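Q: What residues go here?
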């Protein structure tokens, strides 16, 4: 009987630790005065969907002019369809570095070699696999990254 009681106490203690370890989810965070919407888990734009050490950017969505950590955060929170940024607007500031708050144009971001030009924070190179969700990407320029190596492809069904 005593062993069962001890086991139950340990189980209750472990359950309370598990509940405390769950990350807090923020609906809005501010980085250098810029509001980021979605399901952020910290103040560097990581979210419940993407939260590695390199997931430190937010993207301003063309459709609503609001920053979100990722496409899924926008889809879950916004009350409208997303729109991609047309190539003619790649000069618009639409990428936010979650580390320092620097805003990059889409073209600056694509040319930055996965590094913030201001604070030199590293960005996730795998994000290039999802450019088509945010930016108008001609078929011939779509890429897929594998371990930092870009592979070009023509068939968009391979996304």
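A:
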């Amino acid at each position: 009987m005593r062993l069962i009681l001890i086991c139950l106490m340990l189980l209750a203690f472990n359950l309370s630790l598990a509940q405390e370890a769950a990350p807090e989810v923020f609906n809005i965070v501010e980085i250098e005065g810029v509001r980021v919407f979605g399901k952020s888990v910290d103040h560097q734009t990581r979210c419940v969907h993407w939260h590695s050490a390199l997931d430190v950017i937010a993207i301003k969505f063309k459709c609503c002019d609001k920053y979100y950590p990722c496409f899924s955060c926008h889809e879950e929170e916004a009350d409208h369809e997303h729109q991609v940024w047309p190539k003619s607007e790649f000069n618009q500031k639409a990428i936010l570095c979650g580390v320092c708050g620097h805003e990059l144009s889409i073209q600056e971001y694509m040319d930055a070699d996965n590094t913030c030009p201001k604070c030199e924070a590293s960005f996730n190179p795998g994000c290039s696999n999802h450019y088509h969700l945010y930016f108008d990407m001609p078929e011939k320029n779509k890429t897929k990254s594998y371990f930092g190596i870009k592979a070009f492809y023509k068939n968009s069904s391979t996304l």
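A: Context that may help when evaluating the design: The chain is about 25% helix and 25% strand. Strands lie at 26-31, 34-40, 57-61, 66-68, 93-97, 103-105, 143-146, 149-152.
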